[in-house]
Design goal:
- It comes from Cucurbitaria berberidis CBS 394.84.
- Keywords: Disulfide bond, EGF-like domain, Signal.
- InterPro entries: EGF (IPR000742).
- This is EGF-like domain-containing protein.
- There is one protein chain.
- The chain has 2 domains: 35 residues; 337 residues, Glycosyl hydrolase domain, family 43 (Tachylectin-2, Chain A, 5 Propeller).
- Helices cover 11% and strands 37% of the residues.
- It contains 5 helices and 25 strands.
- The strands form 7 sheets. Strands 17, 18, 19, 20 and 21 form a 5-stranded antiparallel beta sheet that branches. The chain has a 4-stranded antiparallel beta sheet with strand order 5-6-7-8. Strands 9-10-11-12 form a 4-stranded antiparallel beta sheet.
């Protein structure tokens, strides 16, 4: 009887702990990815997110050889015979042809791999006629070397595309030898074009930094249904430093310095490669490469790799919960599961209906057992992507 009573007591305590863990009082307790229901004090998560605090991406199985994966490419006319590696990109739906999707991707030239990203990286454009998941086929080189950290988006204030990179214009590298970061200064640059096919303007240097994460600012009137177009640009950089400019080629002002939880490398809150967006409520979010496994496992880069940060305003206070938003283990539609050595450079493709529902996660991945080959993986999120593709006829 005493043992039974003890077990019942432990069960009750476990249940109480679970309830307490799921209790919320503000929307911040729901990672601003949902709302805290006042009746139940539990989080009602937005589509594409799950968990007691809505802090985890609801990733669906990916399909093999979609995305931009040409690691088995052996055509010596351009890529040499060692395969074609890439490291993440940005999905863009064609504005004139909704069934055509573009992927601007960081690609490494001449068969070189991820270990030679500096100086062989350049920006390429690929296309898919089979839906936003791809597979994508190379169409054109957008830049020469060295250009990296590519991010492209539509800028409604001037009806242009903006292409952001780090880099410097150099002669096409003749080998896969890596170049030290001290040899070239970091800078975030932006170019503009009226068409995703180009031609692109000369790159304009915005700030000293790396890993650009720009996003057009939506004013309060925009969220209230006004037709007013805001020309401001928010630009996050490494360590979640955030700048704002009145327009894309104007002066950038620092509005948020490095948060206190990201001021030192090899800390449990060490992150890089932010991707920033503004949600339907006007709140701000960032996904980033969380370096926690490097910290805890002395250089191991997997499996906990994705962090989510959030704030009500660009200026903060930014919040970071110490759990993974996604990891490097991927389930595939063929029933297989693969854990990657590296999974970084997260970017999200959202619905176009104003709800900002996440539909696809784009990351650069590197399989276990290699230090060179890498490719760009596109993985569906939640279930809204199914209806999205159905409406497009896929």
């Amino acid at each position: 009887m005493q043992l039974t009573t003890l077990l019942l007591s432990l069960t009750a305590l476990s249940s109480l702990a679970l309830v307490q863990a799921q209790t919320c009082t503000t929307d911040e307790d729901c990672s601003l990815n949902g709302i805290c229901a006042p009746q139940t004090h539990s989080c009602l998560c937005d589509a594409g997110w799950f968990g007691s605090d809505c802090g985890h991406l609801d990733l669906a199985p990916a399909t093999r050889w979609t995305g931009y994966n040409h690691t088995n490419y052996t055509d010596p006319t351009y890529y040499n015979t060692r395969g074609n590696s890439s490291w993440g990109g940005q999905i863009i739906q064609d504005r004139g042809d909704p069934a055509l999707f573009h992927l601007l991707v960081d690609q490494f030239g001449h068969g070189c791999g991820l270990s030679a990203w500096r100086p062989t990286s350049f920006v390429a454009r690929a296309e898919s006629r089979t839906g936003p998941q791809g597979p994508y086929t190379w169409v054109q080189n957008v830049t020469g070397s060295f250009r990296h950290n590519a991010y492209v988006h539509w800028y409604p204030a001037e009806e242009k595309y903006l292409l952001w990179t780090i880099g410097v214009d150099v002669a096409d590298p003749s080998s896969c030898k890596s170049v030290s970061k001290t040899s070239w200064p970091n800078n975030i640059s932006v170019a503009a074009a009226s068409s995703i096919q180009g031609p692109w303007s000369k790159f304009h240097i915005t700030v000293n930094g790396t890993n650009p994460a720009p996003f057009p600012v939506l004013s309060a009137s925009s969220h209230q249904g006004s037709d007013a177009i805001d020309s401001r640009i928010a630009l996050a950089a490494e360590d979640l430093k955030i700048y704002v400019a009145d327009r894309w080629d104007a002066a950038y002002k620092l509005v948020h310095t490095t948060p206190p939880w990201n001021t030192s490398d090899y800390s449990p809150t060490w992150t890089e490669d932010p991707f920033v967006w503004q949600d339907k409520r006007g709140h701000w979010h960032a996904l980033a490469h969380w370096m926690i496994d490097i910290v805890e496992k002395k250089g191991t880069k997997y499996p906990r790799v994705g962090a989510h940060m959030f704030a009500r305003t660009l200026q903060g206070r930014w919040n970071f919960k110490l759990h993974e938003a996604f990891n490097s283990t991927v389930a595939f539609t063929d029933g297989s599961v693969q854990t990657f050595n590296r999974r970084e450079r997260p970017k999200v493709f959202f619905s176009e209906d104003g709800e900002m529902t996440p539909l696809y996660l784009v990351t650069g991945v590197q399989p276990l057992g290699t230090t060179a080959l890498s490719y760009t993986l596109i993985q569906p999120i939640g279930s809204a992507w199914k209806e999205y593709e159905k409406r497009l006829g896929f």
